[in-house]
Amino acid sequence: MEQKIKSSEGIDVDQIGSQVTITINRPDVMNAMTTQMFADFGRICREISKSESVRVVVITGAGGNFCSGADVGGQGSQANSGKKHVHIKNMRQISESVLALNEIPHPVVAKIRGVAAGAGMNLALGCDILIASETARFSEIFARRGLSIDFGGSWLLPRQIGLHRAKELVLLADVIDSAEADRIGLVNRIVAEEELDSTVQDFADRLASGPPIALSMSKKLLNAGITSSLSQSLEAEAQAQSVNFETEDIKEAALAWIEKRSAEFKGF
């Protein structure tokens, strides 16, 4: 029997059917994440990747904000501690959580309201679909804290909005509202606050009802296609389709089309 994916301190995990919701839950600090939380987040992502029952993941924050990034309280007093090995160890642990998020084979939806800043903004960018409310505010705030960009932002942001816009956001550390985020292509959708939950649920339902193997392969192809040549992408597509052609889901899709009904994909 498959084990339940466990929550941790500051991170709630809820699964209903094939849908998993990860909620960053430290509303008193706008859901800032500690080093331990980043490690736990990576563990949660790896467990989701191994799960045979999950089809879609939603990541959100509690109390009206998405995530304000890393909890850097006390950082100033630690900066000259001489313990460089501690800093690099912590950053590598954070990097592992970025990779764990990226390697989730299922579609991942970010549900964003309020603040998404620093690592919190890049956490959202690491998802496949970003849906934000009109209250959302985004910032690559690192420079204001004497830091350079992290949590995969140097790789994710330019691919999302282009290199020069990415440089502007990172070097100036401005806060942008939802309208500007929509204008520059940072998010998929901006919706009214009262429509955010229902809109994300609709996306999650649609994704959960899709063919799991085919969707996971399409996600992998798109991610890899950013840095692959055309010939490499074509070969990867051919290999993926050869797997799809052997599944029961492709037979179900054909039968559903003939019978003029919605397909019921099983994931095998």
- Widest sheet: strand ordering: 1-2-3-4-6-9
**Order of helix and strand elements from N to C terminus:** EEHEHHEEHEEHHEHEHHHH
> What is the averaged pLDDT score?
93
Question: What would CATH call the homologous superfamily of the largest domain?
Answer: 2-enoyl-CoA Hydratase, Chain A, domain 1
CATH architectural arrangement of the largest domain: Alpha-Beta Complex
Radius of gyration (Å)? 19 Å
Provide the CATH topology of the largest domain: 2-enoyl-CoA Hydratase, Chain A, domain 1
The amount of helix comes to 40-55%
How many beta-strand elements? 9
What number of structural domains do the residues give? 2
Give the strand content: 5-15%
Assign the CATH class of the largest domain.
Alpha Beta
Poorly predicted regions = 74-79
Q: Structural class, from helix and strand content?
A: alpha/beta
Q: How would you describe the shape? A: globular
> What's the N-to-C terminus distance?
18 Å
Sheet with the most strands, sense and barrel status: 6 strands, mixed
Summed up, the helix count is 11
Question: What structural keywords apply?
Answer:
268 residues, alpha/beta, 2-enoyl-CoA Hydratase, Chain A, domain 1, Lyase 2-enoyl-coa Hydratase, Chain  A, domain 2, 2 domains, six-stranded mixed beta sheet, three-stranded mixed beta sheet, 9 strands, 46% helix
Question: Can you describe this structure in just a few lines?
Answer:
Helix content is 46%, strand content 15%. With 268 residues, the protein is an alpha/beta fold.
What does this molecule look like?
The protein contains 11 helices and 9 strands. The protein has a 6-stranded mixed β-sheet with strand order 1-2-3-4-6-9, sandwiched between helices. It has a 3-stranded mixed β-sheet with strand order 5-7-8. α1 packs parallel to α3 and α5 (153-161) crosses α6. The chain starts with 10 loop residues before the first strand and ends in a 10-residue tail after the last helix. The chain is globular, with a radius of gyration of 19 Å. Mean pLDDT is 93; it is low at 74-79. It is an alpha/beta fold and 268 residues long. Helix content is 46%, strand content 15%. It has helices at 35-50, 75-78, 84-102, 119-125, 153-161, 163-172, 178-183, 196-208, 212-225, 230-244, 248-258; strands at residues 11-16, 19-24, 56-61, 108-112, 115-117, 129-133, 137-139, 175-177, 189-191. It folds into 2 domains: 11-208, 2-enoyl-CoA Hydratase, Chain A, domain 1 (Alpha-Beta Complex), CATH 3.90.226.10; 212-258, Lyase 2-enoyl-coa Hydratase, Chain  A, domain 2.
